[in-house]
Write a structure and sequence with these properties.
Number of helices: 5
Distance between the termini: 36 Å
Shape: globular
Strand order of the largest sheet: 5-4-3-6-7-9-8
Strand content: 25-35%
Largest sheet: 7 strands, mixed
Order of helices and strands: EEHEHEHEEHEHEE
Helix content: 25-40%
Number of strands: 9
């Protein structure tokens, strides 16, 4: 985040200044264009990287999966590379981030990524998996509404994997999800981050 611009604004006010960052995982390496006014513009966020290292593999089948709050695309593109038969919906409200995600998918030769604003996702779409480094800083009430909306679109046997910093409320979020009828388990913990796995009751 730069200046007064928030990464969850539809149209960041901060001036554009693009740069390239690299995401290196054991099975995937991606060159990604970033910009000011989007989440983790300087480098791939360590929570995002932990999520990609510790979450279960996506189903490589003709199913829909979701990256909620895709930013410039490190999660969506990694999932798309790992599951070429799946359709990865990359969703964000930040239009600058969406443009970057679309450009990054094209630059990395990934044709199974659909980059859209939230309202453009078909109303009847359900997801075999959801991955997210959710926008904690939008506030607790807005975050809870966001998560309940999209978790409700999980397929019956689907699961969501979220990464949240401990000091930003990962443990209380896990407890709240359990209380809302979404069984939540800690899948990994490292460097102050928690990877949470959420399933249907």
């Amino acid at each position: 985040m730069a200046g007064t611009s928030q990464y969850f604004e539809p149209d960041p006010a901060v001036a554009s200044r693009r740069r390239t960052v690299e995401l290196v995982l054991p099975d995937v390496t991606l060159q990604l264009q970033t910009d000011r006014g989007v989440f983790a513009a300087a480098a791939v966020d360590p929570g995002t990287k932990l999520l990609l290292l510790e979450s279960p593999p996506p189903p490589d089948a003709a199913v829909d999966v979701l990256d909620l709050g895709c930013g410039y695309g490190p999660i969506a593109l990694t999932i798309a590379r790992r599951a070429p038969s799946a359709t990865v919906w990359a969703v964000d409200v930040n239009r600058r981030a969406l443009a970057l995600c679309e450009a990054n998918a094209k630059a990395n030769g990934l044709t199974n990524v659909r980059v859209v604003e939230p309202d453009a996702v078909p109303g009847d779409a359900t997801f075999a998996g959801i991955w997210s480094n959710p926008p904690i800083r939008i506030g607790k009430a807005a975050l809870h509404d966001l998560l309940l909306k999209w978790l409700g679109r999980l397929a019956p046997d689907g699961r969501a994997c979220l990464v949240v910093q401990k000091h930003l409320g990962s443990d209380s979020l896990a407890k709240w999800l359990d209380e809302q009828g979404w069984p939540t388990a800690r899948r990994a913990a490292r460097a102050g981050y928690r990877v949470l796995e959420v399933r249907r009751a």
